[in-house]
Amino acid sequence: MLRLVSEVFNMALEPPNGQSQVVDDNNLLTILEWKIRSIPVRDDPLPSEMIAEESRALELFQLALLVYLKRVSGSSLRQSEKMQSMLNRAFTIFSQIKTCQRYFPLVIIGCEATTEHDRIVVLDLISRTEKYSYTRSLQHMKAIIQSLWAQDDLSGGVLGYKDKIKAVLSSSETLPSFI
């Protein structure tokens, strides 16, 4: 999984140089999407609570990687049916899980919350995670997500995905750990 995260981040950091690079990037995008989707998510018929939670966490990571990959690649899937289906599934998982120990899915999916309902689901998950987790405070993560929402609300969706993420993260005194 971490190797895929690295590949996605490397692709996002390297802008295309020319037409042949764009074709190569499209091929790479297709390959990365296939690799992400082919990670097996455990789906036992009668899973224990712990296995179910781990399966949902893995699926969330997959969904977050796919959303991030589509967004940073400049894909026109902003409101596509496929993207909306992935986001709906992610928000459903957010409402089902007890905590979210990995912050990458929390931020990537969280910043996609455009309705009040979805934003409440994200804030509830943050609250539950803080309540049941004894690792670290999520106040910084919550502030980042709320700043991303504010950027969306103020720009009316005109600000590009990379620019929005860059603006919010660069304004932070410390970079959060997303893994």
Give me a quick take on this structure.
With 179 residues, the protein is an all-alpha fold. It has one domain (2-170).
What are the SSEs and their pairings?
Layout: H1 2-13, H2 19-37, H3 49-72, H4 81-96, H5 103-110, H6 116-132, H7 139-155, H8 161-170
Helix pairs in contact: 1-2, 1-3, 2-3, 3-4, 3-5, 7-8
Describe this structure in words.
The protein is mainly alpha-helical and 179 residues long. The protein has one domain (2-170). It has helices at 2-13, 19-37, 49-72, 81-96, 103-110, 116-132, 139-155, 161-170. Helix 3 (49-72) packs antiparallel against helix 4 (81-96) and helix 7 packs across helix 8. The longest helix is centred in the middle third of the chain and has 24 residues, at 49-72. It starts with a helix and ends in a 9-residue tail after the last helix.
